[in-house]
Amino acid sequence: MTYKTDEIWEDKWVNTTCGVCYCGCGAKVRVVNGVPVKIEGIKESTMGGTGSGLCGKGAAGLMYYHDPNRIKKPLLRTNPEKGIGVDPKWKEIEWDEALDMIATKMKKIMEDDPNKILFTNQTMRASDGPHNHPYFYAQAYGVKNNGNFIIGGGSLHCGNACHMLGGLIHGAWSIAPDWRYTKYVLKWGSSKGTGSGHSAMTNARLRADAIRRGIKEIVFDPMGNFAGGKATEWLAILPGTDAAVGLAIANYIVNIRGEMDELYLKAKTNFVYLIKDDGTYMRHEKSDKPLVYDTKDGKVKEYDDTSAAWEDLALDGEYEYNGETVRPCFVPFKEHLKQFTVEWAADISTVPAAKILEVAKGWVDNAQIGSTITIEGKTFPYRPVSSVTFRGSQGHTNGIHQVAAIDLMAQLVGAEDVPGGTLGWPAIRRAYPGGHYEQTCTVGTDGVIVPSVFYSHDPWPVHAPSYPATNMGCVDVWTHCTLSHIPYVNEVDYIHEKLGMTSKPEMIFGISANFVISNSDWDVAVKNFKDCFVVQMDLWVNETDQAIGDLILPDVSYLEKDCWSSEIDAFFFSGSPSFEDWYVHLQQPVAKPIGESRFFMDVYIDVANRVGVLDKFNAKLNDYYGIKDPELQIKPGEVLDWKQIGERVLKWVYGDDKEKIEKQGYATWHKPIEDVYWRWNIDSRCPVYMEYLIHDRRNMEKIFEETGFDYKKLEMDMDQYTPLPSWFWPESHKDLDNEFDLLAFSYRDILHTNNTTFQNPYVDEVSQMCPYTFTITLNTTMAKEKGFKDGDIIWIENKFGVKEKGIVKTMEAQSPKVIGIAGQGGLWADGRPVAKGKGSNFCKLLPSKLKYFDPVAGNMETAVAVKIYKA
Amino acid sequence: MPRWGMVIDVKRCIACWGCTIACKEEHFLPPGVFFNRVLIGESGKFPTSSKLIYPVLCNHCSDAACVEACPTGATYVREDGIVAIDDEKCVGCRACMVSCPYQQRTYYDENVKTREYFPGQGKTEMEIIGEKLYPFKLGTVIKCNFCSERLEDGMKKGLTPGKDEDASPACVNICPVGARIFGDLDDPNSEINRLIMEKKGKQLRKEFGTEPAVYYID
Amino acid sequence: MNDKHQDLVETMFPSDGSGIKPYEWMISPTRQRQWIDDKGIFLWLAFFFSEIGAGLYFMSLFYSFRPGIVLGWLITLVLGGLIHMLYLGNPKRAWRMIMKPNTSELSRGIWIIGVFAVLGFLQIITPGGFNMVFNFIMGILCLLIISHGFATMNVVRALPAWNSTIVLPLSIISGIWVGHQLLQLMFAISGNAAAASGMEVWAATFFLAYFLCMLLYAWGTWHSSGAAKASIQRMLEGDLKQITYIGVGVLAILVPLVFTLIMWGGDTNGFLIFLRLASVCAGDLAIRYLIMKSAVYNPLI
């Protein structure tokens, strides 16, 4: 067989960025006669898999362009009635009419209060950037605190607690093992390196080499599928109980084995800070800085007093300061841990006590406390043990404590941002040689690191809870929510009323969000949002659009997008976390936009211009990229499209290499090793003792008292506002009884990005060849006992009468007390016929009451007590 | 003359299906046709059960059952070890399909040819151009050819299969975890021979005696 | 809302239990499809007709019965050959199938059929063609053609249920048995009741041999390997069991047995011979169908 070449007038490869999930691997697309026909990775790039590797769904991305179901013209709802199952009776309209309609509506709302407009970001569809811009786009309208951001896709299943602690500990959005040098990896409800998480294929590549090198990888997970199925050892655990095991391991390290990296604890954590009886820091009367005790001088000093050597700081003892008794916070912490025995953790988690002990031993044995390693002529502490978590373990009402407990064991042996340990994505982005845009984290109050760039809500410094709440998300009160949970909560009206939130949302300006079906109880989502005028830029009419959308604008897919900024600002979770050169890929169009579709950034600009806030947005862009060159700054009154803005920003960011970089489609430059293993180079301390939570609790309880907000009635657990990582039962477990005897959980299938990939026929085809992707998994023995077999159609029902149908597939590698559902199936939008009816929807089973959300970080409880029966 | 072969590192593989889909794109395969697949299974009992993942493709056996069964000589082993099909000679008897213990062959008929990725919505531009770029003959049997076009084009340019992507099979290039290693089985110093020796490479279902050129290591 | 759920269930868990769940492909024993499903059904018929045609030819040799060899020759070549061609993807290239007799059983079959066609034609047109040499050569050729279908299947090592040594005797005996029946009917119709009656003793013998071969096949296959056993299991317990019990149990065994007992001792009658023949043909088709349909490949992992 040979290629026929006579009819081919163009056959080229175009470098761009993959846009099928949020990871943004380098990708190149083969275009024949203007038609994209093949996608591969970019061989040289460190952003992505081995060689020109790309995962299956990335390779399948072509179908985004070829899908005949893409919307090609703006669609306007003509049926005023909204809801699931109601035909919106779409009417095609012209772009100008649509944009006018949006601008008119916005102007009217803004006369009153811009916080009545809700915005969404767009990681729900793909990484087709830009990433951070929707946030400050909203700010250009006068929206405060990003509190009226609502999210789809990963929705609140995603990493509020992980991101919060990622920011506080690593100055990064997410964490990964240092695959290159580690020897012992613990993964808790995370599939880093086995298919999901940030930089998924970059991590997969690094992990594959590490596994070949012979590292041990132990996975705690309710099922042995993607992560567990590839682990050296998979340990079945009940959802939401990781903290129990983590705390037991911490107790083993501190109180049984007694082997810790003391120097690290003294130098890099707040364990040496002196606290009063009420648990709060004793602060210096003038500088207000926390204090430490210098054992050499026998004096209390400010924490950053250079006259005190790290090794001399006290981790124990009791001291006097200004007539008050103070002690290092490590003292109560150590006592606190004693209650967490391995037997106790085994009872809660179902992981056998002997296994927990074995893992704990392995952890300390492999940590090589005290050892160093020299790489590139530079010497670092060497701690080849890493403990990482993500969506699975943190998606519970105890999420913040889950993440804190899992982080704790790394803290105790000093395995943070050193070779072999747990790494954040580099918190530092050096400027491209000859260019600008350098982002370096700073050290904030109390010695805590402040990330240079962070999405939505900065983790540090924590702002004190205050009221009245000014936006739908009420982040004025819930100050640790990366993205707020309040918009989805069934009691939202009550919360708003009590907390004085008057900006009742009237409009949503969204990008491909599907929050009606991707978060929790569908009916609550419809109820909470249907009264808004919902504008979405989307590729298809998705479930949210069909249920409550008013105006749907055709967006371009990543294959048609000219997005120079796609990864520039995403360094803190994109790219390689490892010691490898930087690669930043542009997103270059490989084909012409489908129909009349337009890139959402250009729509953003057009709307901002019509509304009269474009200058503000442009000023924020100048500021964001730090453009100092007046030639390159966008000036007031200038109307530039995204491409034109790119001309200037790229010139600023890459200097004289701009053209070269545009031509090759990516920029690459050296990443200094100290930027990867920065822990001992930046004088900061991890707030492992979460003292700030004491103040938050006091403030919040005061607000609740003053406003009459009855948090007890709503069963919001304020006890979680405690500085010590502790054990709290996740709400889902409390709901278990004889009837509702199983915990349903969801997991990410390597083939799917939320629900968009369900519409991809390549992915659909292979999903059917996968035993678990479109089915509901039950442990084989449990299924047999309950009388179910492969292929049975069952109902899964929660305590609130919400139910979902699915097909049974049994597997051995699953805890007998859980049922697993991959991702966000069970779709029904008419605009996505391939997706329709595939898989089951897990999200709808999650109740949307306030008590099912982490009271601190706002994570949703992503396990739910259910019963199953034959349909 | 080299004899091309492949090593699949099961330990690295994470079952992302990249090979399956990239292969479909490379050869413009219609829905339901796969030259590459991933087999996912399970062994053992809870809690010590393990997940089995085996990417499979044509084994390019040197003593191939399909070649033996073919009555016309359309299926043959090339000098470089690739089991190829001459679609001018194939009579469409499917004896090869039936005799392949690995079930790696597909019969390309009207039913397959007319399938659409978006059923009832017409063929996409990609499917249309694919029929020109990579035409299959009706009534013949098709299968993986180790991307021999890529290999040949690449070697003409002086590139090395298994090393340079323009001279290597699409599934090898796409694999994000480097689980596929391609090379010359006749070269005792090739990486694949080294891996087969060191990691004790195994052929699938060796007992059929077809001498597969695809080895698995774990 | 999930009205398409049932479609998905149908794809992933086919209700006919055919065992081709996409995710179980080559992970569990996987069914052979090419040579029975869709157009593959032609092959089933083609093998059958070649077999009975050659069977008739073979039996006719013993009785030097020219109409028998003519009809046998026609059935084998016209019905068997034509249906074979319908099955092929590129029938115009069928001549190429003579290229690989050294390795391909199919190719050998084509040669045999070719030689059979030429020599058979010569025998038909040659007066006194029923001589010893001719008969011997044609007899061998007939046996080869009878067994050709099963021989083609028998060489497939990948399908243990076909790769069993009992397959060939079963196919030869079944060809002779059906051929014998046809010939007996021809005699009965042509008014040669004595010949028909005289053949009955052989009918009983062939039937018994046929029955034993079937048992031997089932028993031998069951014990030969896991995948082969799975094939027999599918016949006895799976979705094919109705065909097994009615097609084989009733049509291939019970009905012929009853008629054979009725006609015991040569008490033959054209109508009964016809009924028995019909039942035997249906039974033979059922057996062939089952063997082709139930064959499974060994899983790869």
Please, could you describe this protein's structure?
The complex is a heterotrimer of chains A (871), B (218) and C (301). Chain A has 871 residues and is an alpha/beta fold. Chain A contains 26 helices and 33 strands. In chain A, the strands form 10 sheets. A 7-stranded mixed β-sheet of chain A has the order 5-4-25-24-23-6-7, covered by helices on one side. Chain A has a 6-stranded mixed barrel with strand order 28-32-29-31-30-33. Chain A has a 4-stranded parallel β-sheet with strand order 11-10-9-19. Chain B has helices spanning 18-26, 65-69, 95-99, 110-113, 125-133, 148-156, 170-174, 191-198, and strands at residues 4-9, 36-43, 50-57, 75-77, 83-85, 105-108, 140-143, 180-184, 214-217. With 218 residues, chain B is an alpha+beta fold. Chain B has a 3-stranded mixed β-sheet. In chain B, strands 2-3 form a two-stranded antiparallel sheet. A two-stranded antiparallel ribbon of chain B has the order 4-5. In chain B, a hairpin with a 6-residue loop joins strand 2 and strand 3 (50-57). Chain B starts with a strand and ends with a strand. In chain C, 70% of the residues lie in helices and 1% in strands. In chain C, helix 2 runs antiparallel to helix 3 (66-87). Chain C is globular. The model of chain C has no long low-confidence stretch (mean pLDDT 90).
For the largest beta-sheet of chain A, the strand count, sense and barrel status come to: 7 strands, mixed
Mean residue pLDDT of chain A: 94
Succession of helices and strands of chain C: HEHHHHHHHHHE
Structure classification of chain A: alpha/beta
Q: If you consult CATH, what is the topology of the domain at 75-153 and 454-570 and 589-664 in chain A? A: Rossmann fold
- Taking the alpha carbons of the first and last residues of chain A, their distance comes to 50 Å
In total, how many beta strands of chain C? 2
Largest sheet properties of chain C: 2 strands, antiparallel
Question: What's the alpha carbon Rg of chain A, rounded to whole Å?
Answer: 26 Å
**CATH class category label of chain C:** Mainly Alpha
* CATH superfamily caption of chain C: Formate dehydrogenase/DMSO reductase domain
- State the oligomer: heterotrimer
Q: Report low-confidence residues of chain A grouped into runs of 5 or more.
A: none
